[in-house]
Amino acid sequence: MPFHMLVPAPNRDDLSVLSDYEVGRFDLTVFWKGKPVLNSIPTSVRLWGRYDVGGFPDLLPNPLSWTIISARLWAHLRGTIEDTVQVFPLVIEWPNAPMPHTDYLILHPVVVVDCVNWVKSTVSRRPDGRVRAIDDVVIRSIIPTNIHVLRLQECEQIILFSDSLARSLVGQGFTGIAFLPCRHED
């Protein structure tokens, strides 16, 4: 089954973004690892958005590397992926927005699959050997057919959507979302 990397839409500088944050002692990396998070987000975490004329996207770009989606997008995805993700409501302050907008959630996939063909993928690594980035992902055909959203083992910040889930978003009016196709081993 084909998979695609979920990324913010390129060339959409007109869309609103999450522009600043204060997390205090909260470990912001808990939403990078694909492990279940047992606690809610503390009220000490503060997030600020910058509104822009293109409006509020359904995938909100942010400096935290969290997958922040609109409640509208979650309503569309929920029936297909709710058993393989956690969601956490967010409070985002929009000082320059014409109206308040509070309908964003963190989408936290908790399925991590070791499915990357490391020989055929284009991978850059840190000096300690950990993965820094995967630019050309080649997926081995071992992902169970009932999994539609997942993280890659060793590079958990990359979120993959199944082809059927990605295609279900086409023509539904969602903004700010793009998918980069992964190559697949035959």
Briefly characterize the structure.
The protein is mainly beta and 186 residues long.
List the helices and strands and how they pair.
Layout: E1 3-8, E2 17-22, E3 46-50, E4 59-60, E5 68-70, H1 71-81, E6 85-90, E7 92-93, E8 104-109, E9 112-113, E10 122-125, E11 131-136, E12 138-139, E13 149-152, E14 155-162, H2 163-168, E15 177-181, E16 183-184
Parallel strand pairs: 3-7, 9-13, 12-16
Antiparallel strand pairs: 1-14, 1-15, 2-3, 4-5, 5-8, 6-8, 10-11, 13-14
Q: What brief labels describe this structure?
A:
186 residues; mainly beta; 5-stranded mixed beta sheet; 4-stranded antiparallel beta sheet; globular
Describe this entry's structure for a reader.
The chain is mostly beta strands and 186 residues long. The chain has 2 helices and 16 strands. It has helices at 71-81, 163-168, and strands at 3-8, 17-22, 46-50, 59-60, 68-70, 85-90, 92-93, 104-109, 112-113, 122-125, 131-136, 138-139, 149-152, 155-162, 177-181, 183-184. The longest helix is centred in the middle third of the chain and has 11 residues, at 71-81. It is globular. The mean pLDDT is 93.
